[in-house]
Amino acid sequence: MSAARRGRGRLGRLLANLIVAVGCVLFLGGFVMAAFLYQPYLVPTDSMAPTVSADDRVVAQRIDGHEVRRGDIVVFRDTAWSELPMVKRVVGVGGDHVTCCDDRGLLQVNGAPVSEPYRTGGGPASRHDFDARVPEGELFLLGDERLDSVDSRSLLAEGGTGTVSTDAVVARVEAVAWPPGRAGLISRPGSFAELPGGVSDPGPLRLLVTSTVVGAVLIMVGSTTGAITARVARRKA
User: Fold this and answer.
1) What is the tens place of the pLDDT at every residue in 102-161?
2) Is residue 125 a contact partner of residue 100, using CB atoms and an 8 Å limit?
3) In what order do the strands lie in the sheet with 107-109?
4) What is the secondary structure of 62-104 as a DSSP string?
């Protein structure tokens, strides 16, 4: 074999090894960061339908409760609600005045009507009117399926504030992972963006998934290229 061919063979193997190395960094980096930042949960009820339904597997970003914004779907633990982790949408934060319903059947936060496109079926935002003031460090939570959701309205009817402490929040739902037909990222509702404080920024889930997938592809491409290069070199030898 000529020196030129040996040189091209070494270059091919070096390039294949480099592709595999880059792929490993992207794959492992994305996977490890996702495992550190995110936690899977099983949704126990249909109270958040149609956004998430019973038995959906969701991916939630681990956050501190003080990072929560209106419109977020959060996972929280509060024995006053259930022994299991619960999933609800935040419609009011500390200092808010949350009422329902106005003459159009809309939820109001601090006097501003809030459209809720994530609800389906029409009708008012709640079957029963309510008026709640959210204490500092607390959250007012509702299910998207208002006809079949045990949420802050229920606790409010029992004489309490109807709220949950921000310390009870363990994660913010970013995406549905299973079943495949429902899988996808969950967007922030624009109706809350116009209120003071706005909505939370999306987490890095899309970037981490992309990194992991691209890394896996590069590992396969580099491994295949390296094997082909080695086989061709042996044949020419």
Assistant:
1) 999 999 999 999 999 898 777 899 988 999 999 999 999 999 998 888 899 988 877 778
2) yes
3) 112-114, 107-109, 97-100, 130-133
4) E--GGG--TT-EEEE--TTT-SS-EEEEEEEETT-EEEE--TT
Rounded distance between C-alpha atoms, residue 163 and residue 135, angstroms: 8
CA 186 to chain centre: 6
β-strands 73-76, 86-93: how paired? antiparallel
User: Looking up tokens 């037909």, which residue turns up?
Assistant: 181
Give catalytic status of residue 47 as yes or no. yes
| CA gap 94, 139 in Å, rounded | 6
The pTM of this model reads: 0.86
What the block records as the tokens of 97 is: 């005045």
2: annotated active-site residue: no
Please identify which of the residues 47, 126, 149, 211 carries the catalytic annotation: 47
Quote the CA–CA distance of 145 and 136 in Å, as a whole number: 26
Which is catalytic among the residues 53, 88, 126, 200? 88
Angle, CA 105 vertex, CA 101 and CA 107 arms, to 5°: 50
Average pLDDT over the chain reads 87
**Chain segment 72-82, per-residue pLDDT in tens:** 999 999 988 88
Q: Angle CA(194)–CA(199)–CA(141) in degrees, nearest 5?
A: 100
